[in-house]
Amino acid sequence: MQQTSSDRHEYPAHWEADVVLRDGGTARVRPITVDDADRLVSFYEQVSDESKYYRFFAPYPRLSAKDVHRFTHHDFVDRVGLAATVGGEFIATVRYDRISADGRPASAPADEAEVAFLVQDAHQGRGVASALLEHIAAVARERGIRRFAAEVLPANNKMIKVFTDAGYTQKRSFEDGVVRLEFDLEPTDRSLAVQRAREQRAEARSVRRLLVPGSVAVIGVGRTPGGVGRSVLDNIRDAGFTGDLYAVNKAFPEGQKELDGVPAHRSVRDIEGPVDLAVVAVPVEHVPQVVTECGEHGVQGLVVVTAGYAESGPEGRERQRELVRHARTYGMRIIGPNAFGVINTAADVRLNASLAPEMPRPGRIGLFAQSGAIGIALLSRLHRRGGGVTGVTGVSTFVSSGNRADVSGNDVLQYWYDDPDTDVALMYLESIGNPRKFTRLARRTAAAKPLVVVQGAGSAPQGHAVRATRLPHATVSALLRQAGVIRVETITELVDTGLLLARQPLPGGARVAILGNSESLGLLTYDACLSEGLRPLPPLDLTTAATAADFHRALSDALADEACDAVVVTAIPAVGEGPAEDAALAEALRSAAETVPGKPVLVVHVELGGLAAALSAATSTAPRAVSRREDSQRSEERPPSAVQASEGVGLIPAYPAAERAVRALAEAVKYAQWRREAVDPGRVPEYEDIDEKGAAGLIGGLLARGQGLTLGVDETCELLGMYGVDVHRALPAPTPDAAAEAARTLGYPVALKATAPHLRHRADLGGVRLDLADEDQLRRAYAELGELFGRPEELRPVVQRMAPRGVDTVVRAVIDPAAGAVLSFGLAGAASQLLGDTAHRLVPVTDREAASLIRSIRTAPLLFGWRGSTPVDTPALEELLLRVSRLVDDHPEVVAVTLEPVVVAAHGLSVLGASVRLAPPPVRDDLGPRTLPVY
């Protein structure tokens, strides 16, 4: 879109965004320009007379030429109009006009604007106005507007509800037959909660449209067996899909009505009924035409298995971006391209729109994989009955996103969060495109059901620009764990852990009972528990002569012991045992486990395929799923949750090695501990002395100088001071006389420091002189530094007031490309750096997290009176961490903060050095209005 040269600002392309609406469809939000006159007139003609009356407070059948000019000519500062479009046509508009205190048109510094909406009747109820309000509010804040006013007729309940439900601080009045609403645009906790709840419902429904379609068309079905399209069609049909299925190929003969019993058509346009989902398997050059036909027919979503996109090079990458733009024009979302497909095993759906030749067993595990090959491996391992982890625990839904051009793991997480058919989520991620959003969604999902993740080696799906993390692997893993994610290293561990969590209750602690008929296997299990940080009890050896009754008795006793939180049963085959003995032992273990259903039970078996199968078998495979479905009424009444203690007890997971069983149990123990702590995560304190608006103004002014910059000393001190962080002044001392003058200004005693890069923060090299009590000592120290290290211009000496003695620490905050905003803490010095003894927390940090952060480093005892030393003021240190966290969280432009050293004394602390780096905020900011990512 272009705007005329007479307008005050260029067209703000960064205001364009794709959004998901309440029903799961998408729309495009963009500024209205002079080129939209015809679209505006056409849009207005489709609005009912009643809606026009509500907008203009009088009959207004058509727009005059003056109206059209006014509503399409904007300066993008004092007058702004946004439109929501589908198929290139307007479905809703919103505009604001800046006004003065007396309601007249105004310019800055006036900070109030009138806002008005108009939504086409056919699209009312889809959440269009709510989405537009989020975006127009963000635009207004960017242009210095802090408050909206709206006048609404009392009968216009829908629009009043849009404003009142938004969550902003409001004032409401009634005058001259009109309701006047005034509300501040500063986001509140409630407005953010409303926005995120709407986001979750919309994105979940957009995925549901792809996973629970009432009708599916496979486009690109070959006339003869074989080929991708024909394989997908056969898989959908053979799985028993409960909806309508269509085969589409433009090469079908004119008179062909069906293909292997499936209705056949030359184009999706020829299908009389609605089509909810289209699986696209045509050559890449024909995909644009297919997308157009699907969009015009009203198809809700696409699974594109066609390859030849970003994985094929630069041309394919641009082709992929155009595919997404094209589909979103019609409100459709895409899984793929180059996707393996989707699966939904629900009895009322039974959809296998994938290249998997067999439908997985129904179960409670959701699977997401960016890689088709990994998706195949996951399905295969869960489906197998022998060799490794075995059993009948199956899949609820499966999504393999291929190039992940549109639908991502974040979208699927939104769906799984309140999906009653999914108890455990397993994800293979090659990258995290929006880390702030992922950690937010992961934290919320993990509070309801386990989320187990394997992350690849940092490679992004084809067509994505994802920078590698700067944090060590172990640190990224720890940060994800803080969000409740169960981070594992391999696909094997992913399945091992997922099966345990899907079948067994969460352990109440780390105390593990071990029993079995092999002393050696019991000792291996004991050692594995110690290695994983568990607290094993002495193994109980039942001897090789143990019978099924002996196992039953021992397991019952172990589960009844209050000193036990979980039980690992080890079993080796006895000479001459067969299937009957395996079944008896399995039944004995299951019946014992039922006596205390709140504790998990695992089995380590050696060459006992029959026992593994028997353990995993309930009366049959079907009743387990049925029993859960029969409980659907209760499921609807309760919030989403992990497997309950009384559920899945009959399915005891079996592992072929002690290490695998114990590692899965250790992950369950850590996750259970996180769940208990997540009930009361603490709070992010409010500090009355924080000047958030002043800091925003300072940051905006500084960034106007360029794209990114490291602040000078004065600017750093000013910005940190607005968040209550006082930095001790360090005055330059280029000469001995300047050093003496600085000391007189600051007051003795002082410190003299060399700040050259090779000497900075290196007290061990002798570049620091402390406790200089007078001018004579200062001048002698100045001369000594010169003799040791060179001329003043090489040393860059500074003078600083002495701080009380204490423990030197370092506080940092950075925006990491993989983890998001991260707050770090450690002690200063080479030893901590060499050992990597630094702890990290995700921003925003709560008071409880700040307390745990300083206690989680290995050298933390130095802060708490180690070997008789004086304990330091850790509450002051916690407050400093919380203030830095607030600064980074409030202002995404702050991409790095370093406070070094921070000397923590017995009473109070001193920040002796600080640096801050700014950069423009990311286009996709999790703190802004809802948008779909653009890759």
What's the Cα radius of gyration?
A: 32 Å
Strand content: 15-25%
Shape estimate: flat
Number of helices: 29
Low-pLDDT windows of residues: 1-7, 385-391, 618-650
Order of the strands making up the biggest sheet: 1-2-3-4-5-6-8-7
Secondary-structure class? alpha/beta
Q: How far apart, in Å, are the first and last alpha carbons? A: 20 Å
* Mean of all residue-level pLDDT scores: 87
Overall helicity: 25-40%
**Biggest sheet character:** 8 strands, mixed
List the helices and strands and how they pair.
Blueprint: E1 17-20, E2 26-31, H1 37-45, H2 49-56, H3 65-72, E3 79-86, E4 89-99, E5 112-119, H4 128-142, E6 147-152, H5 157-164, E7 170-175, E8 178-184, H6 189-211, E9 215-219, H7 228-238, E10 244-248, E11 258-259, E12 262-265, E13 277-280, H8 287-297, E14 301-304, H9 314-329, E15 333-335, E16 341-344, E17 351-354, E18 362-369, H10 372-383, E19 395-400, H11 409-417, E20 424-429, H12 435-446, E21 451-455, H13 473-482, E22 486-488, H14 491-503, E23 511-516, H15 519-531, E24 535-536, E25 540-541, H16 548-560, E26 566-571, H17 579-595, E27 601-605, H18 609-616, H19 621-630, H20 632-637, E28 654-655, H21 658-678, H22 692-703, E29 709-710, H23 713-721, E30 730-732, H24 736-746, E31 750-754, E32 768-772, H25 775-789, H26 792-795, E33 797-801, E34 807-816, E35 820-827, H27 830-835, E36 838-842, H28 847-855, H29 874-890, E37 894-904, E38 909-911, E39 914-918
Parallel strand pairs: 5-6, 9-10, 9-13, 10-12, 13-14, 14-15, 18-19, 18-20, 20-21, 21-22, 23-24, 23-25, 23-26, 26-27, 27-28
Antiparallel strand pairs: 1-2, 2-3, 3-4, 4-5, 6-8, 7-8, 11-12, 16-17, 16-19, 29-39, 30-33, 31-32, 31-33, 34-35, 34-37, 35-36, 37-38, 37-39
Helix pairs in contact: 6-11, 8-9, 10-14, 11-12, 14-21, 15-21, 16-17, 17-18, 24-25, 28-29
